[in-house]
Amino acid sequence: MADGTGSAAPSRIGPVRFLAGVELKRAHVEDIVARVSRRLAVPCHLDPAPWACTPVHLSGRDQVDADLLLASLDGPVEPGSIRVGLTGLDLGLPIFTYVFGRAHRGGHAAVVSLARLSPERYGFPPDPDLAARRAVAEIMHELGHVAGLGHCDDFNCIMHFSPNVESIDVRGMTFCRACADALPRNLLAEQHA
């Protein structure tokens, strides 16, 4: 989910630097980063140190303010570089019950929560592959926002808004032609089904 603010879309995107919250299993994060890396033409790096963020909870809710967590990723970066914070904390906004992720259009950072992506959260048996696919989909969605894209009307496009986990599963895992054409040319390795 993007907030609609931010600068114009960057013409090139540089390396993507992943930061993982201390609450996440390292092997799970490494798998997700490897999957994203296969979809991108730019280098992806996972910071060796855990992400030392200070989450701020929303008033009266057991959720972390997604905008404040995203703001914690702001700061000087090399030109074109992107920071993606991965967390196991449940994210929300004052006007939304929950969000899977957050990014500023044309910005240089994104945050994605894995809290609502695992099947066991919904009473199903664990399925690490499904949880990782959902995480990759949300990361690619937020990277689309960072690259300047808004939400897409095409139900099969990864940029289509997903209000719940079921819609993540049925929405496509690729950018529609219009969204792919609007991305910086150096971002995608290739379209994946």
Shape: globular
Oligomer: single chain
Terminal residue distance: 22 Å
Mean pLDDT: 90
SS elements, strand count: 8
How would you sum up the major sheet? 5 strands, mixed
Number of helical segments with 4 or more residues: 5
What class would the helix/strand composition place it in? alpha/beta
Q: From the alpha-carbon coordinates, what is the Rg to the nearest angstrom?
A: 15 Å
Low-confidence stretches: none
Helix-strand sequence: EHEEHEEEEEHHH
Commentary on this structure:
It is globular, with a radius of gyration of 15 Å. The longest helix has 19 residues, at 128-146. The protein has five helices and eight strands; from the N terminus they run βαββαβββββααα. The chain is of the alpha/beta class and 193 residues long.
Helix-strand layout with pairing:
Blueprint: E1 16-20, H1 26-39, E2 44-46, E3 64-65, H2 66-71, E4 82-87, E5 91-93, E6 96-99, E7 101-103, E8 109-113, H3 128-146, H4 165-170, H5 177-182
Parallel strand pairs: 1-2, 1-4, 3-5, 4-8
Antiparallel strand pairs: 5-6, 7-8
Helix pairs in contact: 1-3
List keywords for this structure.
single chain, 193 residues, alpha/beta, 5-stranded mixed sheet, 3-stranded mixed sheet, 5 helices
Characterize this entry briefly.
The protein is α/β, with parallel strands linked by helices and 193 residues long. Helix content is 26%, strand content 16%.
